[in-house]
Amino acid sequence: MPEREQLNDWDHNGGMYNGADPQDEHRMKMRGKILRRSASFNVAHAVDDLEPGTGAQSIQRALSLLNLVGLIAGERGSGASLSEIASISGRPKASVHRMLQALIAMGYVERFEEGGYRLGVQSQILGQLAQKSVDPLVTESESSLLRLAELSQDTAFLTMRTGSYSICARREEGFGEILNNALSVGDRHPLGIGAGSLAILSELSPAEVDAQFDANAQLFTERYPKVSVTALRDIIDRARVDGFVHNPGLFAQGSWAVGVPLKIRGSRPRAALSIASIAERVTGPRVERLVALLRHEAKAIGEALSTQAEP
Amino acid sequence: MPEREQLNDWDHNGGMYNGADPQDEHRMKMRGKILRRSASFNVAHAVDDLEPGTGAQSIQRALSLLNLVGLIAGERGSGASLSEIASISGRPKASVHRMLQALIAMGYVERFEEGGYRLGVQSQILGQLAQKSVDPLVTESESSLLRLAELSQDTAFLTMRTGSYSICARREEGFGEILNNALSVGDRHPLGIGAGSLAILSELSPAEVDAQFDANAQLFTERYPKVSVTALRDIIDRARVDGFVHNPGLFAQGSWAVGVPLKIRGSRPRAALSIASIAERVTGPRVERLVALLRHEAKAIGEALSTQAEP
DNA sequence: TGAGCCGATCCATGATGTGGAACAGGACTC
DNA sequence: GAGTCCTGTTCCACATCATGGATCGGCTCA
Predict the structure, then answer these.
(1) Residues of A in contact with B308 (CB under 8 A)
(2) Which of residues 210-249 of B touch A (CB under 8 A)?
(3) Which residues have C-beta within 8 Å of that of residue A311, sequence separation ≥ 6?
(4) Tally of CA atoms within 13 A in the half-sphere of B45 that contains its CB
(5) pLDDT at position A52, please?
(6) Are B59 and A56 inside 8 Å of each other by CB?
(7) Contacts of residue A108 in chain B, CB cutoff 8 Å?
(8) Nearest to residue B194, comparing CAs of B205, B207, B180?
(9) Is the distance between the Cβ of A94 and the closest atom of strand C smaller than 7 Å?
(10) A53 closest-nt by C1' vs CA
């Protein structure tokens, strides 16, 4: 933990955020103020409404809020205050308060005496239930990520697909002196942003890749205007041949990474392993070493899960 | 896992359910049809709205639904169908569908090709975030529960308080031939129902206990009409002296249990350990042995968490 | 004393979620 | 192949419900 602190003065923006969205102006202002770590940027994003007009606005808002509380409280040790949550989410305090009360009533959020809001027991339990029912991928990859982090001395990630998004499902840190902090557990980006995300795309058919990029076209131009979609397509094409993705700091300044897709027999591609670090550690011969590590673990996970196939 | 099956024909109702609530009639009818294990009964309960009129109806409904999906999908291996969920929750299909779509859009629920609805990656992640932010109690007690289950050859539980409810936060099974199936992870009951729940109450002041029973008075008469509150008060009073709760099958027929509160310095009492089994295994000298085991683990957990007190 | 923050509460407004009804598409049966 | 009985999905008029600006009480600090 203490090692983290020395990285606090990184360029958090990292060239990744260039929001033209007027809605985000307020959030941007709050960003530096509230959370010092780079995740603040991701936190802000995690709270957006997805597709509107589906007749479930309040649910989406409430779940975004739940996510947000988890991210904030997870990043720091303490809980999140009402005003913070309201500021970051960009909603009025009264609304946030009402929603939080509902979340508390359901046990998904808790608040110890005068402390901040944090996730509650129900959230914990939901995770346990999810482990049983969703798929054993996250559990299965746990030891792999630990090995990857230890052997590489960098940060290892499990990325999973949800619809047209990818989400950082797990993250393990090595004990190196440099810590890549561009991606935290729970961060969600449109498919194509991040090495793991690209690795997943490389396993989809070209038509599907097009469909994903089309679906997120607006998001891309609004939120990642500096990212060239054609460059991403190139990376994907190369990954189809090479079997791995190499991201030379495309998304966050100085954050380089390699990723490989997880191939599980009988299951659509929807997960990837990746390792991220600084440029110097993801170049030249080290790329091959990292890829070898990743491939080895990806193969192990793939085999473990393919055998116990769905009934 | 296969050992479980041989117990499927237990008396699921177990004398626990005596619902006079007219709203529940439909659910009762569905119960045996849909889920065979006793948890079906608890599933049905988990879906109730809590306090209405707080201006967050849809959130509560959506979260109940989320919980329900998790419980159903967790109980069996497969996912839950829309119609099932609609039937159990007692809401029209259209509404359930709309909510599920919202939950899917947010990644909390997933649905693989034509399969049923199950919890999604976001739920998984929420659990991870919760482990970091909520409190280390669940993680810390994991090994204790495993030891308890192994040493007792019965089923060990971690019960936690949420508001005026207690919830089964974790559960580990021994390899004995009899499996107590009256309580599953995620099951929620009003405080006072269950040995662990009573153990938590025994650490509260009499005034607080009264307040809790008052708060849940309606629930008790509606849902546990056979349970005498004065009997519960007696158990609590005895537990204050003895330091443990003994439940002689009060709630579910044949499900006896012992429980001890978890005392953590600097934290309000809100958790308990318990072991449940059949009557023959929770009587006479064995009670003391079980209590000794529980006390030992409770002490260990308490010390582990008291040292790393909140900042 | 009062400015500034915190979380909590009120309540008129209309946007929003609601759910009955109708639909499409399989899987079986007669 | 017309029948029933399941799925999951879409539509849309209705009014319930969430909304959020304004206000308040409590606390800390200058």
Answers:
(1) none
(2) none
(3) B77, B78
(4) 23
(5) 52
(6) no
(7) 63
(8) B180
(9) yes
(10) C16
DSSP string, A142-159: HHHHHHHHHHHSSEEEEE
Residues lining strand D at under 7 Å (Cβ) are: A 55, 57-58, 61, 91-95, 98-99; B 55-59, 81-84, 93-94, 97-98, 100, 116
What is the per-residue pLDDT across B282-298, written as a single tens digit (0 to 9) for each? 999 999 999 999 999 99
Distance (Å, rounded) from C-alpha A33 to C-alpha A27? 10
B83 touches chain A (CB under 8 A): no
Which residue places its CA closest to the C1' of nucleotide C5? A83
Cα of first residue to Cα of last residue in chain A, in angstroms, is 42
Alpha carbon distance B80, B265 (integer Å): 42
Helix-helix angle A82-89:A24-34, to 10 degrees: 140
Report the C-alpha gap between B192 and B202 in whole angstroms.
10
Distance CA B294, CA B43 (A): 28
Which domains are seen in chain B, by residue range?
A: 10-129 (1.10.10.10), 134-307 (3.30.450.40)
User: Contact, A52 vs A23, CB < 8 A?
Assistant: no
d(CA A154, CA A163): 29
Per-residue pLDDT tens digits for B245-283: 999 999 988 899 999 999 988 778 889 999 999 999 999
Reading the block at residue B237, the tokens are: 């009073």
Residue A138, token pair as written in the block = 């996250």
What's the residue count for chain A? 311
Q: Is strand C less than 7 A from the beta carbon of B54?
A: no
Distance CA B298, CA B301 (A): 5
By CB neighbour count within 10 A (0-12 exposed, 13-18 middle, 19+ buried), where does A290 fall?
A: buried
Task: Region of A15 please: left (phi>0), alpha (psi -120 to 50) or beta.
Answer: left
List, edge to edge, every strand of the sheet that includes B245-247.
B188-190, B165-173, B155-162, B271-277, B256-261, B245-247
Tally the C-alpha atoms within 13 A of residue B252's C-alpha that lie toward its C-beta: 23
- Of the candidates B283, B299, B273, the one whose C-alpha atom is nearest the C-alpha of residue B194 is B273
Total Cβ atoms within 10 A of residue A49: 14
The CA–C1' separation of B174 and D8, in angstroms, is 41
User: What is the spatial distance between Cα B43 and Cα B94, in angstroms, rounded to a whole number?
Assistant: 21
Q: Is the confidence at residue A266, as pLDDT, over 90?
A: no
| Segment (H or E) for A166 | strand A165-173
Closest C1' nucleotide to B58's CA = C17
- Per-residue DSSP letter, A56: -
| Terminal CA-CA length for chain B | 42
Considering only CA atoms, give the Rg of chain A: 19
Say which residue the tokens 């405080």 belong to. Answer: B191
pLDDT tens per residue across span A132-158: 776 678 888 989 999 999 999 999 999
Does the distance separating the beta carbons of A73 and B129 come in below 8 Å?
Answer: yes
How far: A94 CA to C12 C1' (Å)? 15
Tell me the mean pLDDT in the region A229-255. 94
